[in-house]
Amino acid sequence: MRARDGERAAQRRRESRHHARARIWSRIIGVAFVVVLSVGAGAVWANAGKSDGVDDARSQSCAAPTSSSMSSAATTTTASTRSTLEDRFIVRMRSYEDIEAHERAVGAVLRRQRRASWRVLPRRNAAVKTYPTDFVVVETTPSGTSTFERARRSRAKDDALVSLREVLRDVAKDVHREQRITRKSLLQDGAGNDSGNEDEEDAPSRRRGRKLLQSSVAMKLNANALWKQGYTGAGVKMAIFDTGIAADHPHFNNIIERTNWTNENQLEDGLGHGSFVAGVIAGTSKDCAGFAPDAHIHTFRVFTTAQNSYTSWFLDGFNYAIASGVHVLNLSIGGPDYLDIPFVDKVHEITASGIIMISAIGNDGPLYGTLNNPADNLDIIGIGGITSAHQIAAFSSRGMSTWELPSGYGRVKPDIVTYGDNIWGSKITGGCRSLSGTSVASPVAAGAAVLLSSILPESTRWSILNPAVMKQILVEGAEKLPGPHRYEQGAGKLNLLQSAEILKAYKPRASIIPSDFDLTECPYAWPHCKQGIYATMMPLILNTTIANGLGAHGEVVVAPKFIPNDSDLGDVLDVRFSFSETLWPYSGYLALYIRVKDEGALKSGVASGRVTLTVASPGARGETALRFSEVEMTLKVNVIPTPPRNKRLLWDQFHNVRYPPGYIPRDNIDMKSDVLDWHGDHPHTNFHELYDTLTSAGYFVEVLGAPFTCFDAKNYGALLMVDLEEEYSEAEVQKLQRDVREEGLGVVLFAEWYNVQMMESMKFYDDNTHYDWNAATGGANIPALNDLLQPFGIQFGDVVTEKAGSAFPKIDDDIVAISSGTTIARAPQGTFLHFASLKDRNNKEPVVANRAFASLTRFGEGRVFAFVDSNCVDSSHIQFRCFEFFTRAVAFAAENECSAKYCDPAKQINDAYSDGSELPKRRNDVDFSEFSTVLGGHPGNEGSMTCGANSPLEFHTARVSYTDLPGRLKFDPKLVERNRPSSSQTVVPRDDDDGNDDNDDNDDDNDDNDDGADVNFDGRKTFAASTRDEADAGVFPIVTSTTTLYVVVIVVGLICVVRTVKRRRARRAKARANAPQIGAL
């Protein structure tokens, strides 16, 4: 019996140990589930700003503070009350985490590295109290600041920034200096003056008020027609980033939340901007009614009463906007710095979360090339202003965008225009005021967007609407204005009712903006309608935007191709492409390089065709199949016979350097209010009047966006070199000498001032970036130009000159305007050299002397015309126009034509000329390589030293790579057909029928990209890696990998549980079976 009892006890002990092991494994599996779910949730949150589905971001809004939380979270300021931010840094982290976790990680590194001069600046605002964050602010301690102040930094030599980046490289994504955002107000009063005060009078009387209602901007755009249908903006969350608003403002139905992100402890609007903008969007006053009276207003006070802000304030505010689930966001601010990386990246994250951002295009009109950021971004809806007479407002900035230069071409901006002149909106505490500016036009469009959003049922609204969809319906519904060209008005004037009809019938699709490039239509198609295209010309580059209404993440899965029309000269066009394979967020670019084939050299007429491509995106929530959209745009150009060589001019764009990122000073020194050279220096931006003059004179202007080694001089009469700041390679110097002396190329060179003493006097400390800004060069880079011209014996001097007296010099009857120029200090024998009495601006007591200002020289087969100033042909801040003088210079250089006064024998020198002065030298305290492509720099808007897609095909070293896309988009198009829902086959509507719809069956016949499998179309629908940093870590791949992890862990866990249960059951059954046998014994 004792033996039997011992055996039973051993059996029970074995079963007990097994049960204990099973319980332990169950707990381990449970803990693993919790850990995985936590990690997964963290990964999803870290990419909430890059979510592919709008609903993913919206689901985070349940914990957002609303009106009930205004007294706590909303009143918290985001920064300490230090009066200055001399040494403050934004440390961007690799993921979203609790603020304390990020601060501990950064602080630990600083302590470990014994960096007592740096400390983490605590932030305890509404965003970081409620939600995770992706950045930390670090500042220097007072002792550290004094150390840095003893050696004031320059933008090119920022030792503190470099050191902090090195210290935090293992824990941080990157580090940038905090910037003060004093982006000038884009509001003006009725007189066109900047307005930031409350000096406007109330709308006088009820009778006057009724009259105003009949002409209010909302009524003017027929908002009342939508109000009558029951659409009033209800349920739409409208974020206004401005100067705040009063909690009890009588003009608003639904001020849901007010938050303050400044270092001023207040929520009220002390300036009037925020109140006015909110009133235009959602005001209820009869005297100044807004568009969407029932919208939910969320105000973000990001500007102080002194109109100051900082990047970190915007970053926190943007994070809060993403997390709290706002739907539309208005930014009535702007600036030229498109390289403020933390700000620009966060704007992309805003739109990736599904928030529709609408921004003012700028008040720098009527100057061209003056688009403001972020309105010039692909994914933002940029708004320009018009008057009540449907004319482009004088203040409204003009396109094109300039950050694609020199290698590419600017995009069409603004996207649309709307009323922005003398518009009525709310004052701070009630009443109405009249203001003008693109900061008025922007909330007009934002109000329209909110009102349009409310057309869709709330249950499906945000599964359809996203930033691309709103851009599509606004652009496609816009009404083209007669007169202004595309880079002034975009798609045209906002048409609220037409956009409403498009939205009501909308099905998710991708589209190209503009969807129609008719370059024969003048003046709308300026500048391209001014001259036709022809064989051997530099490619005509068109830059378009792919708007992906299917979702935040998408891919071009069938590469673009051109299908010529059979009814005209379409088959002589050679159209090639570069494009964003990955579309994120909601957008990408498509560039067209258009050439005429050699067989079209003698042909004349219209050439047209279609460009097609296919976009795919993951399905919406609940959908298992990919979404596909077949996209189409139309193209129409004038083809002309190749002009004679002496009528062809080549504009050197490659050797232009501009702001940002460096301090490139304005050519006109007297222009104190706009000291930076940022308008592009392109014949289609600030040299547009010169372009019109030359084309009207019968010349054909092409643009060189590559080095001198990338063009054939035998095709051109003259190379135009105007206001250039770049260096020149030795190969370029040698080639230009051969081109002029042996190939007969002419050169027209309009230089600018250069003097180190003058540049040093222009140094200033920028409160925005906390840098000492030293001018990287003068108006032009004279030392570099002198190196280029040295083989010709022509050299520019060191003196900064202007006219002496009231009159400009003359040659023949042509006035020669000199305002901030240089001098010709050396010239070779035989030059026709012109002198004038000019004032030396270098000295406190200006010296007037007879100085050389223009030279005309023949070298072998070619000619060089040199002049000392370009201001008289630069439409930005021009003092006096001298286009006729420039045309004479072109006639000499390109055609060897020279009037008696220009080539007066009395002006021809028999010996080499020298004024005896020392030639200018490069600055030794500025590292120009930071801004120079030729010297190997990467400033962010540089060109390429290799001949690329913007060069003639015979010079293009990779002519196939941007056409056939080897190794990147190769797949079997039959898989696309199998996975494409028939309802998703969408084509952009065209205004006119080209009669070639029957050619659609050719779409799949000529694709050379059919092999390989980089894009995976199996059941998991994974996409190829992104070409952008954001999309590399972006939503769809991460969400897919997180889901995969969940599935794998759950399946493994279930297998373990099932196996454990089976084993336990088997052992129990065995025990029961053995029990009688033991008893019998």
Oligomeric state as shown = single chain
Distance between the termini: 9 Å
Number of strands: 38
Alpha-beta content class: alpha/beta
What spatial order of strands do you see in the largest sheet?
25-24-26-27-37-36-35-31
Radius of gyration: 33 Å
SS summary, helix count: 27
- What share of the residues does DSSP label as strand, in percent? 15-25%
State the helicity in percent bands: 25-40%
Question: Which term fits the overall shape?
Answer: globular
Uncertain runs: 34-85, 145-153, 189-214, 964-972, 981-1042, 1076-1081
Largest sheet: 8 strands, mixed
Arithmetic mean pLDDT? 82
Folded structure, characterized:
It is built from 27 helices and 38 strands. With 1081 residues, it is an alpha/beta fold. The strands form nine sheets. The chain has an eight-stranded mixed beta sheet with strand order 25-24-26-27-37-36-35-31. It has a seven-stranded parallel beta sheet with strand order 7-8-6-9-10-11-12, with helices on both faces. Strands 16-23-22-18-20 form a five-stranded mixed beta sheet. Helix 12 packs parallel to helix 13 (341-352). The relative contact order is 0.09.
Descriptive terms for the model:
27 helices, 7-stranded parallel sheet, alpha/beta, disordered C terminus, 20% strand, 1081 residues
Question: Layout of SSEs?
Answer:
Layout: H1 2-46, H2 54-58, H3 70-74, E1 88-97, H4 99-112, E2 118-121, H5 126-130, E3 133-140, H6 142-150, H7 159-167, E4 172-177, E5 188-189, H8 206-215, H9 217-220, H10 223-228, E6 237-242, E7 255-260, H11 273-282, E8 296-301, H12 311-324, E9 328-331, H13 341-352, E10 356-360, E11 381-386, E12 416-419, E13 423-426, E14 432-436, H14 438-453, H15 461-464, H16 467-477, H17 486-489, H18 496-504, E15 510-513, E16 516-518, E17 540-548, E18 554-564, E19 573-579, E20 582-583, E21 587-596, E22 605-617, E23 627-639, E24 648-652, H19 688-696, E25 700-704, E26 718-722, H20 730-741, E27 746-750, H21 756-761, E28 764-766, E29 771-773, H22 782-789, E30 795-796, E31 801-803, E32 810-811, E33 814-815, E34 824-827, E35 832-840, E36 847-859, E37 862-867, H23 883-895, E38 913-914, H24 961-964, H25 973-979, H26 1029-1032, H27 1035-1080
Parallel strand pairs: 6-8, 6-9, 7-8, 9-10, 10-11, 11-12, 16-23, 24-25, 24-26, 26-27, 27-37
Antiparallel strand pairs: 1-3, 1-4, 2-3, 5-14, 13-14, 15-17, 17-21, 18-20, 18-22, 19-21, 22-23, 28-29, 30-34, 31-35, 32-33, 34-38, 35-36, 36-37
